Amino acid sequence: MRRTNTMQTILKRAIERGEIKEEKASERISWLPIDLIRHELLTTYELVTEETIIEIVDDIFLHLIK
Questions:
Q1: Which of 5, 9, 11, 35 is deepest in the core (most CB within 10 A)?
Q2: Secondary structure (DSSP) of 10-60
Q3: Which DSSP state fits 4?
Q4: 52-60 — which CB contacts under 8 Å span 24+ positions?
Q5: Long-range contacts of 4-8, Cβ-Cβ distance < 8 Å, separation of 24 or more
Q6: 7 near 47, Cβ under 8 Å?
Q7: Distance set, CA 34 to CA 9, 28, 31 (Å)
Q8: How far apart, in whole angstroms, are the C-alpha atoms of residue 28 and residue 50?
Q9: Which uninterrupted H or E stretch holds 63?
Q10: Percent over 90 (pLDDT), the chain
Q11: Counting beta carbons within 10 angstroms of the beta carbon of residue 11, is it exposed (0 to 12), middle (13 to 18) or buried (19 or more)?
Q12: Rg for the chain, CA atoms, rounded
């Protein structure tokens, strides 16, 4: 099992506030933003832009956890 990541802590707090359901906060989901950023770095060999990070969070990640 992977060590706890920052996103897991953030998701746990969102669950406690009632913003998301616990079943939406799996370990795999919590790693998704990091994994997508890593994928971007490895496939383009360029710095990840702020626009790309916003797309990953707003267009992908938030839809999975809401």
A1: 11
A2: HHHHHHHTTSS-GGG--HHHHHHHHHHHHHHHHHH-SPPPHHHHHIIIIII
A3: P
A4: 57/33, 60/32, 60/33, 60/36
A5: 5/30, 5/31, 5/34, 7/31, 7/33, 7/34
A6: no
A7: 14, 10, 5
A8: 23
A9: helix 62-65
A10: 73
A11: buried
A12: 13
Q: Which amino acid, residue 54?
A: I
Q: What's the sign of the alpha-carbon dihedral 50, 52, 54, 56? A: negative
Q: Which two tokens stand for residue 41?
A: 């770095």
CA distance 27 to 8: 7
- 47: Cα within 13 Å, side-chain hemisphere: 3
- The mean pLDDT value for 54-61 works out to 95
